[in-house]
Amino acid sequence: MDATSSIIISVFSTSSGSGKTITAINLAAGLAEEGYRTCLVDLDLQFGDVMGYLDMVSDFTIADAQQAILRNEDKFNVDDYLTEYKCGDTAFSVLPPPREINDAYLINVEAVEKIIGSMKGFNFVVLDLTSVFSTLNLAMLDMSTVINFVGVMDFLPAVKNYKVGYDTLLRFDYEESKICLVENKADSERYIKARDVERLLGTKIYHHLPSDPQAITYSIRMGKPLMYCVPLSPLTQSFWELVGRYTNRTKKSRIASQPAQEKKGKKKLLSWLFGDDDWLTAQNMK
Amino acid sequence: MTKVTYRVILVERDRDMLSRMAGMLKANDAFDLAATFHDADTAYGQSSVFRPTLFLIDVDEPGAVDMVPRFIKSYPQAQILGTMGQWKSTVAEAMLSAGAGGCILKPFNSTDVLEALKIYKRRGQALPTRTLALFSPKGHSGRTTLATVLAIELAQKSGESVGIIDADLQFGDVAMFFDAVPRHNVVEATHDINLLTPAALENYFHPVGKGVWIMSGPLQPEHAELVEANRLIEVVRMAGCLFRYVILDLPVGFNPISLALAECADTDILISMLNSGQEVRHMKRSLKMFHMWDAYGKRVYTMFSGVKNCTDEHKRKLEGELGRSVTLMLPEERRIKDVTGSGRLMKDLPENTPFVEAVADFAFALISDRR
Description:
Strand order of the largest sheet of chain A: 3-4-2-5-1-6-7-8
Number of strands of chain A: 8
Number of helices of chain A: 13
Radius of gyration of chain A: 19 Å
CATH topology of the largest domain in chain B: Rossmann fold
Structural class of chain B: alpha/beta
Number of helices of chain B: 16
Number of domains of chain B: 2
Oligomer: heterodimer
CATH architecture of the largest domain in chain B: 3-Layer(aba) Sandwich
Distance between the termini of chain B: 48 Å
Helix content of chain A: 40-55%
Shape of chain B: elongated
Largest sheet of chain A: 8 strands, mixed
Strand content of chain A: 15-25%
Strand content of chain B: 15-25%
Radius of gyration of chain B: 22 Å
Distance between the termini of chain A: 39 Å
Strand order of the largest sheet of chain B: 8-9-7-10-6-11-12-13
Order of helices and strands of chain A: EHEHHEEHHEHEHEHEHHHHH
Largest interface: A-B, 30 and 34 residues
CATH superfamily of the largest domain in chain B: P-loop containing nucleotide triphosphate hydrolases
CATH class of the largest domain in chain B: Alpha Beta
């Protein structure tokens, strides 16, 4: 699919450990799998986990991209600084964070804006942010088409921070329609119910991602997005639904739109990875 | 009639100031002004005949602080307060290190002196403050849980007072853990610090019971911008006059606030929760930043929380990967999450759990200065 202007999805939260990186990776992978040219940018500049979770190494980072764009903006080509993540037929680009913490300090907000602005060749740019209202994060939220605001509601202080974060986003004049509230580790057994959180926030939660810690652990250990190692996990299915919401295509239509042979080919590939019909789920992978 | 409590020796080099402060003390029955001197040296030599129980020594006088240990040795039954024209944290800290009770600003009135004496009694032993900064590379590390449980254990085991400053300026949770709604917060304290004395700063802390006090974070994340690192350091240093132990719950990662406070603390604790497998890598990256302070005698401890397998073998494995010793491995503890999440930490701390016992052991090591 040709791109003229990227859709930028920022994955943001106000409590750490709420699953931003996992969400960002799986969104990027899902979008790429759907055929969209996708770039994932790890903007946790000090302790980014994208490369670790995908078991990747790279020669270039955002620090190198910044140097280049500040040296000569006209000659800058963002593709020179991206690393490709490839699994089967699907691939997406990754812009890694600086290797050293000292380099993270040197990252300049305007330069990052220019780098992200130069990613016009991508259909989707997914930004993995940190859990803080920093100058960089606010600049990225400004540039974003949608803010995927993730939260885990199993702990009262985390709910407080989610509410404070949401109110702050509204106070900062981000349109309500731009903020997509995503509840992670949604579990019906929880003592804090989603409907109570919705009442507190005064709005509906856009999407609920179920809890599947084993699937996530397995995915990180394998260095692969969920769809490539635990495709039948309810969490993977839920990520597909989320991807569908952002692309306006449901999973059903995605499958229906694929030629039969292509579908077969894909199955073959996954069968090669996991054995014929033994796709892993969180339940059976033990 | 107020019972006479303190036989006071007042040392002040400025004649007018001396006369003014002497008058204040004479007007209050809580004080019996035994003698006045213009310099500490003469006061030291001549005070024994007055059997003083309180020295008020002008510490703006050069060399006065250095004489404090001699006063303590010769007048063991007397308390010592320094008096200063403008608050100087370095002098106040030097006084505490020398064994004095603390300092007050002059000119003072008799209530100021009584309040200061009350604070210093509650603070604990006349020993230097231990300032502990809790740092975590990423969030969801159990940092605030460790800070709060450690505060409770330190206060309980030492009988001294402990202050927690919530420096996680955007999304601090300390007040929620204690179900507290403080009237003031860290933004106000940093704004006002240049006008405050320890007695006035006390009002910015909220007592949560059992010798623990908290200074909460701002109400709105954007207020974090109003906090300047150098002013916050002044708050921390003055808090040392109120509390024997000051615990700093730092924001996640390295930023001007976390770096400044970690540098100002005498002890830095790095904590990470074992979860995704990337934590040792993050800890190693963080330690690079702490390495220089470590080499200069600052105490740097590394801890892991959420440890499923708290065995010596696992500890050795982590130490091997980290390349340095691991001070503490804190197990997962559902009950701690329940009490912190519902604000019942102080009331329902599950004492006999491996988590609390591990923190209590560390608190004991801090109190006995083994850590």
